[in-house]
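As described in the Methods, two query proteins were run sequentially through the folding procedure within a single session, without resetting any intermediate state between them. The first query and its resulting structure tokens are shown here.
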Amino acid sequence: MLRANLVSSLKNSLSVLSTKKLFWFLTIIILFLVFTCLFEIQFSWGIAGILILCFVCELMDSSLGMGYGTTLTPVLLAFGYEPLALVPTILLSEFLSGFASSYFHHESGNVDFSRQSKDLRNAMLLALGSVVGVAIGVNIAIQIPTHILKLLIGIIITLAGVSIWLFHKHSFEFKTWKMFVLASIASFNKALSGGGYGPLLTSGQILSGIKGKSSVGITSFAEGFTCLIGVILFLGKGQGFTPELLVPVVTGALLSVPVSTEFVKRTQESTLKVIIAVLTTILGVFTILKVIL
């Protein structure tokens, strides 16, 4: 039943894609082909696997405001990628997909980013709070030994998954300072591990009384801004990108954005939250065990 509902929602989402969104698909595919030729990337099953994985993870992220970095990071770590090569790549892909997702969520009416709107004010507040956390996180990530960083990533991801279970029925009063602190903590996790931002920020907004669909669009905007700052700081520390990883990661993420904005209207939020909570917890534990065993 769960699988049938998800497949049905995805089919419905694909059937209502506008000409603008179809043009987006075509543009991203053309750019993928251009960059694979430019960097002389040999297409392989590994490249295809990363592209599909990023498509699915970003589909979850743009649909619920969580699941991209939190799911993608431990999987790619398990395939042997080092954190300092992986995290900047994820940040760059989420910078691009975050702002693209914000635009399409606004176009679809899931969130209102018009001038002087409440959603835009909340997004800017969270983006501002994120600057503090991401600046601290990048500096710590550069100094921590690789095995310690992997262990911290596993702990952060596990806690993110468990937190979805613990607090989804609670409701708290909206406070500006609480949202600022939440954004700082979430962005610290993002800079440190490439994940953990969406689960904390989206859940925190919902628990604070912000509507679910609005919180997803707001998280996408704030996350895009946060990831931009993170990329700049990592580049300033001398960290670069690997084209063989960057190109399929960015392509997969960007291809999913138009689908996810329709998908969010047609899939039960509780269903995807259960899937993400279970998956992130399992992947977090797996990452921890891989380090200590």
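Immediately afterward, the second query was submitted; its sequence and tokens are:
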Amino acid sequence: MRRREFLITSSVVGTNVLLGSQLVKSTGNLVAAEGGQRMAFTQPPLPYPMDALRPFLSEEQVAFHYGKHHAAYFRNLNNLVEGKPEAQLSLRELVIQAPAGPVFNNAAQAWNHSFYWDCLSPKGGGEPAGALGAAIARDFGSFAEFRAAMSDAGVKLFGSGWAWLAADKDGKLKILALSNAETPLKLGLEPVLTIDVWEHAYYIDYRHERAKYVEAFWGYVNWEFVAKCYAAATG
């Protein structure tokens, strides 16, 4: 096994769950363990083993998505900001402040993917309760109507991108279908839930059938994390 693959695998197996607050309100940068080299931004470990989301996502699918695509955004971003003031920002701050271009694209994709992994759980699924459940019923009529609308946003988004549930400063929920690396953070909204509909998120397991991937997604939603994100947005 090559050293890079070993580092990725061992970090996944040996990690505990990454708390959502580390993404929602992140303020600092991390130091890479690889070779002791200091890097501005480090890919968080998965909050579960790579095979934990089966049958929704196979170990191969997660390994390519997390270990290749997601990792590449962090690697590209670190190369772009090395020795520059942007390297002193948190990843969230950089996403919000960066103008359109390579730095934003890689920073946003790094952040979006980290958020996506936290939106999933091997013990997920069902429906949200509490304040989040009430807000969904208020703003969409029912959970069933919300689920249908968000699924539709993801399935019908042309090309690559993300379906987002986001909250404004008053706690009102909105569904957004955003292309490429775009994120609610750029719109002054707080991300609450996301579905990655880039082909690399599902192609190994679902080929061209994005609708089947989106349908299966709902059985693994980490509503505890999503509720924490909503609480942070409204607190």
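The chain has two domains: 3-118, 130-234. We note this only descriptively and draw no conclusion about the first query from it.
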